[in-house]
Amino acid sequence: MKVYKYRSIDKETFERDFKTLSENCFFASGYINLNDPFDIYFNEQISPLIKILKTVFLNNNVSNFENEFKKTLDFKEKVGIYCLSKDFLNEQLWAYYASSYSGYCIEYDLSKLIDKNQNPDFEYQLDIDYEDNIPTINIEDIKNANSFIKKIYAIKKSTWKHEDELRLIFNNYGLKKFHSSAITGIYFGHRTEDKVKECFYDLFKNKDVKFYEIFPSNFKLDSRLINETKRKLSHDLGRFEFEILRSRENRWE
């Protein structure tokens, strides 16, 4: 599956992002840096229930549960969140996040971003649901980890529905690594300057990456291939003939 990240060419942002990409990294942000003030916004009905239980059961079990529940809620302060879209022809995203069609959009192979060999702290891949009611965590969600996580990290107001967002959750915010083959394409807006395009052609000159231009056509956005880079192979394997003699425990002769 392919997913997309729209980026600005604001000087400071571009220089930081370009350096990060050159190091095969991306930044999973803390939730306080997300641009939606109602992101990670929820009610919970567990704490009032705990207070009642503590008056009925005078033992440490309830207190231990209360402490663990609090730690789970406070965990949001540590998590890293990487927000992506499933759409590279999104007019609003090009306008908001890609410098009004002067920026660019990165195409990732999703399977490479969630590879725990690269980032052992990757935890969840979440499709965002768009609702206008505040999500409420109740006792049933305690029994269902997926529902619990979804209500905390994957519900946004319907005003953001146009983003068609997919979200990656990591145990800690900060820089994350990806395999050098994770980026499969770069899309440029129809206003992107040639010097920006040349920077990316040079950066990916020894990788398999396709470059596209996004342009308006018949009252909608369209794309066209404008360049392509290829890996330089150390050996031309096409010159040889191969025959599998035997295989054992994922080892081949």
Q: Main sheet: which strands, in order across? A: 1-5-12-13-14
Number of helices: 8
Spatial gap, N to C terminus? 32 Å
Query: H/E element string?
Result: EHEEHHEHEHEEEHHEEEEHEEEE
Class derived from helix and strand content: alpha+beta
Per DSSP E runs of 2 or more residues, the count of β-strands stands at 16
- Tally of individual domains: 1
Radius of gyration, in angstroms, nearest whole number:
23 Å
Which parts are unreliable, with pLDDT below 50 for 5 consecutive residues or more?
none
| Sheet with the most strands, sense and barrel status | 5 strands, mixed
Helix content: 25-40%
Average pLDDT, rounded to a whole number, is 93
Strand content: 25-35%
Q: Looking at the structure, what is the overall shape?
A: globular
Description:
- By secondary structure, this protein is of the alpha+beta class.
- The chain has one domain (2-243).
- Helix content is 29%, strand content 30%.
- It is built from eight helices and 16 strands.
- It has helices spanning 11-22, 46-56, 60-74, 91-97, 110-113, 139-143, 145-153, 194-203, and strands at 2-7, 25-28, 43-44, 80-85, 104-109, 122-127, 129-130, 136-137, 155-156, 165-170, 174-177, 183-188, 209-217, 220-229, 247-248, 251-252.
- A five-stranded mixed β-sheet has the order 1-5-12-13-14, sandwiched between helices.
- A hairpin with a 2-residue loop joins strand 13 (209-217) and strand 14.
- Helix 2 (46-56) packs antiparallel against helix 3 (60-74).
- The chain is globular, with a radius of gyration of 23 Å.
- The two termini are 32 Å apart.
